[in-house]
Design goal:
By secondary structure, this protein is of the alpha+beta class. The chain has a single domain, classed as Nucleoside Triphosphate Pyrophosphohydrolase (Alpha-Beta Complex), CATH 3.90.79.10. Helix content is about 30%, strand content about 30%. The protein contains 5 helices and 9 strands, in the order E-E-E-E-E-H-E-E-E-E-H-H-H-H. Strands 1, 2, 3, 4, 5, 6, 7, 8 and 9 form a 9-stranded mixed β-sheet that branches. The relative contact order is 0.18.
Length: about 180
């Protein structure tokens, strides 16, 4: 496991790595997975961040779950899996980041937490959660964790909109709204 002496890049073997918590509660038909919205694109994700100095990777993943969603619970000592995604940097560039995912059995959801009001939180069934995330590898990881077969439960899900498509949709709505004002 990497320690975060290499923060902020989260490098492990020269690759950029983050850690994430996969928050869950219940069992069987009552199993639920918590997704949070990202702050910028508002797409559904799991709590994640860079490794932290002085904390193991599972501890850092649990800290992210606390900061982003006010969650407390028991974090798995080993990752359940990993998934890649493109992280948009402040300078506009995108970097491929691999994320180690640690299941977090949630036993408390606090009334207040650091990023409260910055994100939307939603407990979903594993199928709803898997179909809501944009990254196919994260979708498959959630399904595998919950022991569900997406192919047999649903037809192939429609791909979630990419950040570029979301930006174009927003721009189109703004232009349409402005055009309507000028035509009146």
């Amino acid at each position: 496991m990497s320690q975060a002496g290499d923060k902020p890049e989260g490098r492990k073997g020269g690759k950029r790595r983050q850690v994430a918590a996969l928050p869950w509660r219940g069992e069987g038909e009552d199993l639920r997975v918590l997704l949070v919205s990202s702050r910028e694109t508002r797409r559904w994700v799991i709590p994640k961040g860079w490794p932290m100095k002085g904390r193991t990777d599972p501890e850092a993943a649990a800290q992210e779950a606390y900061e982003e969603a006010g969650l407390q619970g028991t974090i798995a000592p080993q990752p359940f899996g990993e998934y890649p995604y493109l992280k948009r940097l402040k300078n506009g560039q995108a970097r491929l980041v691999k994320v180690d995912v640690y299941p977090l059995e949630v036993n408390a959801q606090l009334q207040a937490w650091p990023e409260q009001g910055q994100r939307t939180l939603e407990w979903m069934t594993p199928i709803e959660a898997a179909l809501a995330v944009q990254e196919p590898e994260l979708r498959d990881l959630i399904a595998r964790f919950a022991g569900v077969d997406l192919a047999s439960e649903h037809d192939t899900p429609a791909k979630a909109p990419t950040p570029v498509r979301v930006a174009f949709q927003r721009l189109r709505r703004r232009v349409t709204a402005l055009w309507g004002r000028y035509r009146s």
